[in-house]
Amino acid sequence: SEEASLLSDPNRKSRELYERACEVMPGGVTANIKYFEPHPIMMEKGKGSKLFDVDGNEYIDYLLCYGALIHGHGNEPVMKAVYDQLANQGTTIFGTPHDLEVKMAEKLIELYPGIDMVRYTNSGLEATLLAVRTAMAYTEKDKIAKFEGHYHGGSNQFLLSVNPDIEKSGTEDEPVAVPESTGISSHEVEHTIILPFNNMDATERILRKQADELAAIILEPVQGGFIPADEEFIIGLRKLTNELGILLIFDEVKTGFRTSLGGCQEIFGVKPDLTALGKVLGGGFPVGAVGGRKDIMMISAPNGGRDILSAGEHSAGKKEILFHSGTYNGHPTVLAAGLATIQALEESNQMQKLCDRTKLLRQKLEEVYQRQGVDMQTIGMGSIFNIVLTKETVKNYRDLQKANMSLRKVIDHELLLQGIYTKPLNRYSMSTAHTEEDIAKTVEIHEKALKKIRG
Ligand code: PLP
């Protein structure tokens, strides 16, 4: 009868567990983004490219913990590094400095052109927050600029115009800040300038007007992980920020280790002043890091800091130091997982192979949608892409709104039922564990789903 009930409702256990979750967590979830209708699927196990839910259903996973799991689930070298680290260190954490912090920092400096020094955090959000505080301290200015449609984590100063209602967002040339949440103060709205991505003329006009107050511009060099900056745009932005004395922060939390080993800064050949990293860096454990120019990073050194210059007078011997702390920063087990993750990417050209396999999947998916007569393009870079249901050029948030989101939702729901895990409307991330067989099956399921939907 267990079998019969699963046949009639293949998600029965997920639904029942979700009903219990709703009693103890608002909406039954612990991050709003994890919710979708009719109810989220509760997972029980992961292996390679696959996720298995509490009802025993199997999925090819393209969410991969929002991109973090670049080697898929339970990668052997990563798991072994974690077990070995725990066994050898004889504790869960030291709470003191240790060698893996140094090793990881040396690795990041080797790979990322814009990184001379590193500090660790426990999430991507903490990294973007620290980058912005560092920029404000260094420049002694207190506004930041961000681009419409860009996500930098769930804090007040970044939760503006991430996914806004266009009706309330002003014009493309002069976007206005729209809060993404209740509980965001007018201070944050006033201190965050919104810019239009891939639109240099309007960006330049806004920046020139605000330059005296702007500490930094923060951006995702590939918006949402899939809409790349035009090369001309990002090179222009670097020149302009240098001229205007505004720091340039690359948020490479998604793109780090995914567009290339050295992130977008390596690909574009543009050195940001500060970089935020996360996701892949922790091999599936919570992590973040800020890296950047030595003279900027050194303002947080407790034995360094910066001479205080006030009202034109040099207050001899006085230092100003940027505060940065965190009980779990540089967690040894997390860094062991991260180092093993990076090492496995560097071996036998894995990064290139991963990007090639992603390209193959994109190409095959485009063929399926064309065969089925659905307007679609894949957009992305390296090992991340998205399925965008429009033939029009997509360069920014506003272009994206013109795609057929409602059809995409229906497709995603059908894919879920047939064994492909994508959080509805989310981008696709690939892993080194995804095989050609997975690709063939993914393409076949898409074709079946499209046929069914278009009846
Ligand atoms: N920045 C970007 C570009 C991200 O994609 C994310 C998370 O998705 C963050 C920052 C925040 O990272 P975390 O969720 O680890 O706080």
Care to describe what's here?
The chain is of the alpha/beta class. It has a domain at about 95-330: 3-Layer(aba) Sandwich (Aspartate Aminotransferase, domain 2). It contains 15 helices and 18 strands. The strands form 5 sheets. Strands 4-12-11-10-7-5-6 form a 7-stranded mixed β-sheet, sandwiched between helices. A hairpin with a 4-residue loop joins β2 (about 50-55) and β3. α7 packs parallel to α8. It is globular. It starts with a helix and ends with a helix. The site of pyridoxal-5'-phosphate has 13 residues, from α5.
Per-chain topology:
Blueprint: H1 2-8, H2 12-24, E1 43-47, E2 50-53, E3 58-61, H3 76-89, H4 99-111, E4 117-121, H5 124-139, E5 143-147, H6 186-191, E6 192-195, H7 200-210, E7 214-219, E8 222-223, E9 227-228, H8 231-244, E10 247-251, H9 263-268, E11 274-277, E12 288-292, H10 294-297, E13 306-310, E14 313-320, H11 332-346, H12 350-371, E15 377-381, E16 384-388, H13 397-400, H14 405-417, E17 420-421, E18 428-429, H15 436-454
Parallel strand pairs: 3-17, 5-6, 5-7, 7-10, 10-11
Antiparallel strand pairs: 1-2, 2-3, 4-12, 8-9, 11-12, 13-14, 15-16, 16-18
This protein binds pyridoxal-5'-phosphate.
